[in-house]
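Here is the promised in-class demo. Please do not try to memorize the tokens; focus on the logic of going from shape to residues.
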């Protein structure tokens, strides 16, 4: 009797656990669906009854869906290093990223919209209806592709997806001549340059930190001098970006004023960091692991800076085509002189980014932060600051670069530098093969010895090669896949919407 009761209780507990897991699995898609329904109702109420209201409502819902996917996939690049280095918890990363992503989208999210929405296609010969269908097809196709990539855990570029979507639908609507190929060429060049730049800059930062702090005999004294300088550089860069981009709608300072603001905030950052670093290092051991802890707070600020830059730069992937649709419908033609950015369009992008991050972002954050290479606070700080600086420069130039390429390139740069240093150190400390203690002919005399030597070589590879290959493959596939899917979506829209 007791055994039967215990068996029944265990079955009940199993059912409860399965029900709880199922409810957690369905909660995120359910909240996303509620958000999309709210977007549709809000836009329908705002525009009222009109001949084009239903098109704007559909476009807004698709833009919201794309914003969710941008938040779920791309934001992992911002917070991955901080979470992977254990500098911040997943919950803290989600909260910080949500705030700064929304702030970047709302305050500085306009400059790259014109490139995504207007400059990719030469549209004088395209009627307004075809242009609207192209933009909506591009949005839906790129959102579907990024959704699939997020589901399988691949950190693809949402910029690649939306550009591919616009090109694919544009070709289907008006042929190859409608695509502004010089613009596509410049964007493609930036896709190659940006990850290399991110990796190089991150490696340079790590070399500087090693030379100034971690390889010194007295690491504590060196950290008291140099960590405030790194904080000053970071706060100065953020201040200059905010002055030129974030406040551009209410205040546009000249270059001299911008540089002055950067210098002032850099000084303020140094003043604040000096006593904090000194206090934190009072009872700290003179070890690299303990000194690395001084970079935790700067790393959080760097991650926040990167999130702000991402919100400003990549919100265009979600709302750029929507803004073009609204402007085209209001003006009645496809050759738009400028893309209007009403607050409700920016709000959809900002809320969608934050919500997508919170609901679906943790999986990709772990992939970027933990599965590429091992990160500590210093290496994560170098990668995050490098990615932030590169994205800020790109956003200032109005280029829709891939933040995925930049951030992942920075992580690879740090990992490959460590790998190079590790191999150099191991080769320098290894026993020479011509030594009388080692017979070079016996190094691989048996299969077991060959396997052991191969494993030693593999351990020197601090960057997981399978992720290099898989991420590179995802980058290559995204553009043609999104273009092909967008062409199919365009045909379907023409068939069913007519």
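The designed amino acids, position by position:
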């Amino acid at each position: 009797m007791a055994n039967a009761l215990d068996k029944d209780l265990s079955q009940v507990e199993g059912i409860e656990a399965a029900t709880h897991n199922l409810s957690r699995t369905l909660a995120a898609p359910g909240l996303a669906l509620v958000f999309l329904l709210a977007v549709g109702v809000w836009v329908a109420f705002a525009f009222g009854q009109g001949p084009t209201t239903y098109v704007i409502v559909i476009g807004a819902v698709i833009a919201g869906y794309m914003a969710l996917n941008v938040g779920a996939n791309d934001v992992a690049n911002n917070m991955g290093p901080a979470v992977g280095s254990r500098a911040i918890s997943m919950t803290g990363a989600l909260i910080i990223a949500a705030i700064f992503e929304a702030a970047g989208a709302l305050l500085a999210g306009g400059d790259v919209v014109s490139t995504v929405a207007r400059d990719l296609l030469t549209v004088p010969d395209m009627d307004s209806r075809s242009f609207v269908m192209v933009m909506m097809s591009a949005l839906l196709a790129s959102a579907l592709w990024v959704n699939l990539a997020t589901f399988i855990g691949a950190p693809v570029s949402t910029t690649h997806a939306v550009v591919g979507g616009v090109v694919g639908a544009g070709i289907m609507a008006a042929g190859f001549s409608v695509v502004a190929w010089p613009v596509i060429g410049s964007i493609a060049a930036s896709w190659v340059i940006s990850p290399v730049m991110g990796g190089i800059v991150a490696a340079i930062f790590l070399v500087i930190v090693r030379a100034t702090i971690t390889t010194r005999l007295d690491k504590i004294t060196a950290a008291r001098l140099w960590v405030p300088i790194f904080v000053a550089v970071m706060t100065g860069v953020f201040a200059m970006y905010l002055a030129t981009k974030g406040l551009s709608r209410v205040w546009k300072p000249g270059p001299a004023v911008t540089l002055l603001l950067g210098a002032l905030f850099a000084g303020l950052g140094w003043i604040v960091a000096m006593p904090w670093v000194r206090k934190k290092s009072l009872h700290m051991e003179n070890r690299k692991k303990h000194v690395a802890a001084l970079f935790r707070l700067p790393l959080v600020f760097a991650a926040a800076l990167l999130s702000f830059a991402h919100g400003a730069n990549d919100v265009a992937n979600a709302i750029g085509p929507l803004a073009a649709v609204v402007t085209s419908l209001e003006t009645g033609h496809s050759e738009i002189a400028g893309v209007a950015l009403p607050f409700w369009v920016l709000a959809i992008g900002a809320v969608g980014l934050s919500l997508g991050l919170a609901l679906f972002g943790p999986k990709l954050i772990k992939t970027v932060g933990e599965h590429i290479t091992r990160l500590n606070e210093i290496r994560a700080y170098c990668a995050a600051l490098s990615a932030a600086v590169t994205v800020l420069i790109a956003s200032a130039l109005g280029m829709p670069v891939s933040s995925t390429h930049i951030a992942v390139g920075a992580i690879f740069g740090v990992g490959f530098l460590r790998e190079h240093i590790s191999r150099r150190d191991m080769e320098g400390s290894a026993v020479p093969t011509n030594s009388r203690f080692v017979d070079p002919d016996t190094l691989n005399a048996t299969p077991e010895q060959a396997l052991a030597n191969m494993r030693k070589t593999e351990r020197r590879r601090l960057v997981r090669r399978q992720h290099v290959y898989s991420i590179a493959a995802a980058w290559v596939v995204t553009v043609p896949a999104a273009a092909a899917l967008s062409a199919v979506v365009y045909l379907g829209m023409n068939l069913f919407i007519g």
